[in-house]
Amino acid sequence: MKEPFNPFVINTYQGKDYFCDRENDLKILISHIENDRNVVLYAWRRLGKSALIHRFFEELETSKGCETIYIDLLATQNIDEAIQSIASAIYEKYGRTTAGISASIQKLLASIGATISFNALSGLPEISIGINKSEQPGQSLKALGDFLLSRKKRIVIAIDEFQQIADYEGANAEAIFRTWVQQIPEVRFIFSGSHRTLMEAIFTEKKRPFYQSSQLESLQPIALEAYTKFITEHFQAAKKSIEADSIEKIYTWSRGQTYTVQLVCNHLFANYKKVSLSDVDVVFDQILTQQQAVFANFQKMLTRAQWNIFRAVAKEEPLQNPLSKDFIQKHNLGAASTVSTALKALERLELVVKDEGYYLVHEVQLARWMARL
Ligand SMILES: Nc1ncnc2c1ncn2[C@@H]1O[C@H](COP(=O)(O)OP(=O)(O)O)[C@@H](O)[C@H]1O
Ligand SMILES: [Mg+2]
Question: Which residue among 176, 316, 366, 368 has its CA within the 20 to 30 Å range from the CA of 154?
């Protein structure tokens, strides 16, 4: 892996040195895998699920002798695209040999009607499944599973943004996937997802195929103490400095959301040698200004009532009782029934989330921006 220029990475996993803590989460994940349990990892967006999976996979590959396969379903809209993603991940992992494309992988891809082509721009291989080829998604998955079973090492598969399958049209994707998982009991699975309510529903509703099939782990924010140590050390290593009270301020403003903490620190590290509390405010401002165009779009997406309530939640969060007279009058929100309907819509869109009885705006940067309006 290439060293980043800035130690506060904001895109992806860049190796242990740039990864803060999560030691306990890692221990829990390792224990699940070592005891043959499948895991559901879920949390609000941008808290660090995907990065943790990469960190965990590095550990499994280097010291546990496992083979790991990472699949991201975020951009998939149907089961064919999901199978395409799985086939691509398997190809990435096992397809290339010094002599070209492995023969067993070629055979496997052909059996599921997939072809490899080379992207004209990047020159990279791409897997595509011809139209109508995978009329039998169950059979394609079975073929992929049989290939995995033929491997000698223990295999761990992570399916990220797994909640997508609940939106697939047509065939019952949950049932098809559940069958697949049962066909390959030696393979361990981590199902990860951002949509907390959907993930919980998939795995805890009695009538659904994945009911009680996996261990549910909800990821929490990194503790302030661990983050303080991590941030301080990276500044010191570059002969820069930041005080604990500045870090606490960043952490609170970010509501402990990993991505936002990283983003603020990335800017501070880039622009200052000795960070003061007022520098922190300057960076908050810069970040919100940069996002302005994106945030302003939300207003266009929502009805007037929804927008007004959304903004009021941002101003009052953590908000306990959105139907209270005080709240409604203070923000001039009209009838309680209007508030209730609009709030339900905002929750369905996961723009507003309910966390331990309190309403919050899901995107913390958006919350900070709206609170200023
Ligand atoms: N433990 C960590 N230490 C440092 N940076 C992290 C850590 N976890 C996540 N990040 C960073 O935070 C951002 C969001 O994390 P990500 O894993 O994409 O969140 P999620 O998958 O939960 O939406 C990523 O850019 C990643 O680089
Ligand atoms: Mg992710």
Answer: 176
Domain hosting residue 47, numbered range? 22-218
339 neighbors 369 (Cβ within 8 angstroms): no
312 shares its domain with 178? no
Model pLDDT, residue 110: 86
131 pLDDT more than 70:
no
Centroid of ligand 1 to alpha carbon of 21 (angstroms): 12
Burial of 92 (0-12, 13-18, 19+ CB in 10 A): middle
Written as six digits, the tokens of 28 are 């829990």
Nearest-Å Rg of the Cα atoms of the chain is 23
What CATH number has the domain bearing residue 351? 1.10.10.10
Q: State whether the beta carbon of 38 lies less than 6 angstroms from ligand 1.
A: no
Q: What's the CA-to-centroid distance between 159 and ligand 2, angstroms?
A: 10
Backbone phi, then psi, for 11, in 5-degree steps?
-105, -55
Once rounded to an integer, what is the mean pLDDT over residues 131-160?
A: 87
Is the CB of 194 within 6 Å of ligand 1? Answer: yes
* DSSP assignment letter at 162: G
pLDDT of 1 higher than 80: no
Domain boundary among 218, 248, 272: 218
Question: Which is it for strands 358-361 and 100-101: parallel, antiparallel or unpaired?
Answer: unpaired
CB distance 50 to ligand 1 below 6 Å: yes
Q: Does residue 159 carry a pLDDT above 60?
A: yes
Give the domain-ending residue among 161, 196, 218. Answer: 218
214 with 323, same domain: the answer is: no
pLDDT of residue 135: 63
